[in-house]
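Retry 2 of 3 after timeout on previous attempt. Resubmitting structure tokens to design endpoint.
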């Protein structure tokens, strides 16, 4: 009887949440200005960039901290671990509490964590700060659902696409910026500058962001448990997660082996590898176009088209060593632009699609999608390194292409 009562209460709570969401959408839909979209895009980009700043600086960190490679390797590992835990454990809170308040709290914690890293007297403090950076950087995944909630239905894809462009540019350009700043000004300056950028975002957000009504009344444990219910309830969510995870395998495999391939085949250093982030950024700039197209033609059509573009771009890398030397770098750049566009446009289409499933659960839906994508990223880094070590560049190309074709097969299914 207690279980039946609990089930009825949960059902009533969900129905109330849906009603609250509809009211909240009507209230917020008229308040999405161009300047607010740009604020959200900048906030998402600067926040997510925080988890990648350390990667090009590890050599400098090891020398300054007098630590070995294995020790400094825990810095990005703890940051990524913190981010993954934050996605699963903290991002769902956006459905239970005012997203504006969550964004401001997480931004404050992120700024303090970056400040701790910049002032860290030893590896212990730096590792603790890195874990905190990962946890708090999930504010980026509170900002994207906020944009979806503020946008009217007819403009949701475009708004999400614009914010995602900021987030993706943060990912792709963070390594270029941190490598340059660390080399010429020091790694501590990079962390301190990053902290100041987050403080600026928080101050502007405090003035520009409206308040968000809670869309769920569940307790924390029930909120987390409801994510499993969402997973079972929506086939289109599962397909989006599977497809995005498979695409992420190729994406991560390419970027995790590119520097080694450039060094071995082209005799180019880490600066050149970082510069390829600019090519990826060019592809990411197409995300608003993908969102706009999703509004007009439907997110499923855009997801299938963009996944096909990614598969073709990955496959084209197999021609790299067939071409004359002067054309090989050009092919690398063109392929990087193509598959970055495909992966990012597919992500925007996936988010546009799942946000319409249950508006009251947007934060939880987004958490599931992003968690699946990061699982693919982690698998791609490991599998890409293994494939490169055993079969060279062609092993990476086959892995990435197979992942993209698998994603396309998932997309072609019903309710993709």
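Retry 2 succeeded. Sequence:
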């Amino acid at each position: 009887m207690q279980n039946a009562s609990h089930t009825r209460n949960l059902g009533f709570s969900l129905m109330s949440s849906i009603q609250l969401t509809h009211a909240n959408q009507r209230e917020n839909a008229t308040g999405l200005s161009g300047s607010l979209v740009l604020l959200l895009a900048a906030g998402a980009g600067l926040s997510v960039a925080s988890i990648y700043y350390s990667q090009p600086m590890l050599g400098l960190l090891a020398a300054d901290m007098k630590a070995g490679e294995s020790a400094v390797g825990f810095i990005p590992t703890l940051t990524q671990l913190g981010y993954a835990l934050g996605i699963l454990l903290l991002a769902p809170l956006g459905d239970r509490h005012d997203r504006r308040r969550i964004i401001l709290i997480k931004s404050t914690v992120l700024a303090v964590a970056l400040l701790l890293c910049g002032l860290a007297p030893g590896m212990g403090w730096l590792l603790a700060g890195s874990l905190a950076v990962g946890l708090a950087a999930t504010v980026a995944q509170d900002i994207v659902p906020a944009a979806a909630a503020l946008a009217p239905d007819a403009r949701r894809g475009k708004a999400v696409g614009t914010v995602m462009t900021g987030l993706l540019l943060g990912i792709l350009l963070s390594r270029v910026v941190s490598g340059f700043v660390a080399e010429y000004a020091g790694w501590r300056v990079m962390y301190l500058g990053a902290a100041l950028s987050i403080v600026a975002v928080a101050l502007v957000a405090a003035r520009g962001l409206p308040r968000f009504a809670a869309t769920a009344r569940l307790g924390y444990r029930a909120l987390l448990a409801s994510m499993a219910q969402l997973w079972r309830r929506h086939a289109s969510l599962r397909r989006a997660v599977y497809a995005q995870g498979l695409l992420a395998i190729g994406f991560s495999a390419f970027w995790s082996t590119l520097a080694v391939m450039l060094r071995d085949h082209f005799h180019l250093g880490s600066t050149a590898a970082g510069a390829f982030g600019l090519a990826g950024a060019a592809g990411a700039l197409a995300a608003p176009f993908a969102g706009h197209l999703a509004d007009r033609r439907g997110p499923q059509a855009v997801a299938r088209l963009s996944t096909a573009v990614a598969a073709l771009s990955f496959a084209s890398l197999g021609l790299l060593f067939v071409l004359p030397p002067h054309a090989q770098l050009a092919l690398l750049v063109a392929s990087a632009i193509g598959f970055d566009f495909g992966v990012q446009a597919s992500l925007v289409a996936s988010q546009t699609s799942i946000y319409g499933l249950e508006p009251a659960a947007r934060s939880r839906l987004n958490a599931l999608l992003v968690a699946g994508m990061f699982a693919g990223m982690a698998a791609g880094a490991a599998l890409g390194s293994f494939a490169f070590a055993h079969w060279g560049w062609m092993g990476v190309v086959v892995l990435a292409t197979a992942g993209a074709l698998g994603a396309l097969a998932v997309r072609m299914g019903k309710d993709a």
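Attempt log closed. The longest helix spans residues 362-411.
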